[in-house]
């Protein structure tokens, strides 16, 4: 199976997690922090899920899954602990055009969960296309150790200047040179986010002039 990594806006989107056990908890942990309306439906739930409800992270419906719970739902996680029931939920979702992840059953899932590294200004997702979730997690952990804090700070600074550059500079080639120069200066610690753009405009202009001179 082949998977393409989409980054989807989920803020305020209703996501249903059918199940209240360990698998449901893992999926809740993965989905938390992205602003989605997480709804857990199960006759009983783990104490850890209750704690998250008290913290305002999720809503809990103490009832078995029913098809009417799919109304207004953006996507579903079938994590009941019963493979047959999960497949039935996936079939209900398929009939309604709702993406569903059936836990540990890629053949009956429309999407799978990557291992996610979350920073303030960027998100890194690692997937093995379902071959080994454990290895995906190991790769993510190595990446977390290897990526310095400067990457996060530089990303935030570039985000602050991006809208201004897009507004003021109409030439796509010049924009890219400005962003490249700013990224290099930020990662090298040569400037702060406040003055990255101006210095980068100068660097980009010099590169353009040098290129033009060589072409003559």
From TrEMBL:
Gene Ontology terms for molecular function: ferrochelatase activity; precorrin-2 dehydrogenase activity
Pathway listed: Porphyrin-containing compound metabolism; siroheme biosynthesis; sirohydrochlorin from precorrin-2: step 1/1
Enzyme Commission number, as recorded: 1.3.1.76
InterPro entries documented for this protein: Met8-like, NAD(P)-bd_dom_sf, SirC_C, Sirohaem_synthase_N
Pfam families noted in UniProt: NAD_binding_7
Region Disordered: start-end pairs: 191-216
Biological process per Gene Ontology, one example term: siroheme biosynthetic process
Keywords tagged on the record: NAD, Oxidoreductase, Porphyrin biosynthesis
Biased composition (Basic and acidic residues): 198-216
Spans through the membrane: none
Reaction catalyzed: precorrin-2 + NAD(+) = sirohydrochlorin + NADH + 2 H(+)
Domain of life of the native organism: Bacteria
UniProt-listed NCBIfam families: cysG_Nterm
Name the UniProt record assigns to this protein: precorrin-2 dehydrogenase
Organism annotation: Eubacterium pyruvativorans
């Amino acid at each position: 199976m082949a998977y393409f990594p989409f980054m989807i806006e989920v803020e305020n989107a209703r996501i249903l997690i059918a199940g209240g056990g360990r698998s449901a908890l893992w999926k809740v942990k993965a989905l938390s922090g992205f602003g989605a309306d997480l709804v857990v439906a199960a006759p009983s739930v783990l104490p850890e899920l209750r704690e998250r409800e008290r913290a305002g992270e999720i809503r809990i419906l103490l009832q078995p899954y029913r098809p009417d719970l799919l109304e207004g739902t953006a996507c579903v996680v079938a994590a009941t602990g019963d493979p047959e029931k999960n497949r039935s939920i996936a079939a209900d979702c398929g009939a309604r055009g709702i993406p569903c992840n059936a836990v540990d059953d890629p053949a009956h899932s429309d999407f799978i969960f990557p291992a996610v590294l979350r920073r303030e200004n960027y998100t890194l997702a690692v997937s093995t296309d379902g071959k080994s979730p454990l290895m995906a997690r190991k790769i993510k952990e190595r990446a977390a150790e290897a990526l310095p804090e400067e990457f996060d700070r530089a990303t935030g600074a570039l985000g602050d200047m991006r809208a201004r550059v897009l507004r003021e500079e109409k030439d796509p080639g010049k924009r890219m040179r400005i962003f490249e120069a700013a990224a290099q200066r930020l990662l090298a610690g040569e400037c702060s986010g406040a003055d990255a753009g101006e210095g980068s405009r100068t660097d980009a202009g010099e590169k353009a002039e040098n290129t033009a001179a060589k072409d003559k």
